[in-house]
Amino acid sequence: MSEPDEPPEALRPLLFSIAYRMLGTVSDAEDVVQETYLRHQRALAEGTRIESTRAYLSAVATRLSIDHLRSARVRRESYVGQWLPEPLLTDDSEDPAGHAEQADSLSMAFLLVLERLNPVERAVFLLHDVFGYGYDEVASIVGKSEANSRQLATRARRHLEESRRRFDATREEQRQLAERFFAAVSDGDLDALVGTLAADVVVYGDGGGKAPQWMVPIAGVDKVSRLFASIGSQMREVGVTIRPREINGQPGALVLDPEGRITNVFVLDVADGAVQTIRSVINPDKLHHLGPVADVRALMRKLRSRAE
């Protein structure tokens, strides 16, 4: 680990990285980071001796994330439709090499697999396997013995390995396939869409009851290709465009209305030369951190009026 005299503000990216992977939400992760700094300032004002700023801040952020996650899991049980993590733009990072190195632990697929773990298991796994903390440090942060922390990490890895999907395509191969897919969507080209999709491709949508979205997964190359050919046609009708971006270390795109406001975000899982999974986040509550958000229902009304 780094020396203990690091400036607190220099650790903000690390704290956000821990909190975001724990919670899967940008807004909540930012709240955790802010509260972490407030507690640090309060501790200093009270004369608390802090030997390592990094260790102290990491511990506070992790414990706050654990507490927040416990209450968030209850809320997610009543979430309308499929819950997906809040999308995070990663192609404008100041440290692309760092993002590339940790892209797998940022992917939506990985964050959803983490949902299988309880909050403490998730913290132990992330701190040790992703962020490189020693088991002695992890044990101190989560309030467990070092031996127990090792057991929790082993159990977490076992759960993750059972459900974790490997993506064998290079970043460039993923980018090229994504470009073909989004071009086919924009053109409404059914044959081209079929050529980019895996036979068992699945689409998930997250509207959270706040915007129109698919309530259940849609599976199979025939259904999915026809769905996106239709979506492309509707987009052209109302002037909506697709802007490819890297989302959570994966190929994806921002979908923008004629005024440049975000309607939704697409994220793709690519493996074996095909798009395996498509995730669409259209819940406006999960998009505000990316920029101005469009009124999707108004676009839908405009589309219906043109059809009449």
TrEMBL record:
Keywords from the UniProt entry: Coiled coil, Sigma factor, Transcription, Transcription regulation
SUPFAM superfamilies from the UniProt entry: NTF2-like, Sigma2 domain of RNA polymerase sigma factors, Sigma3 and sigma4 domains of RNA polymerase sigma factors
Boundaries of every RNA polymerase sigma-70 region domain copy: 9-73
Span of domain SnoaL-like: 178-261
Keyword Coiled coil: yes
Domain of life: Bacteria
Chain coiled-coil ranges: 153-180
Domain RNA polymerase sigma factor 70 region 4 type: 108-160
Pfam families according to UniProt: Sigma70_r2, Sigma70_r4_2, SnoaL_2
Keyword set includes Transcription: yes
NCBIfam families: PRK09636.1, sigma70-ECF, SigX4
Complex and partners: Interacts transiently with the RNA polymerase catalytic core formed by RpoA, RpoB, RpoC and RpoZ (2 alpha, 1 beta, 1 beta' and 1 omega subunit) to form the RNA polymerase holoenzyme that can initiate transcription.
Similarity-based family: Belongs to the sigma-70 factor family. ECF subfamily.
PANTHER family: ECF RNA POLYMERASE SIGMA FACTOR SIGJ (PTHR30173:SF36), SIGMA 19 FACTOR (PTHR30173)
Protein known as: RNA polymerase sigma-70 factor
Source organism per UniProt: Pseudonocardia zijingensis
Source organism phylogeny: Bacteria, Bacillati, Actinomycetota, Actinomycetes, Pseudonocardiales
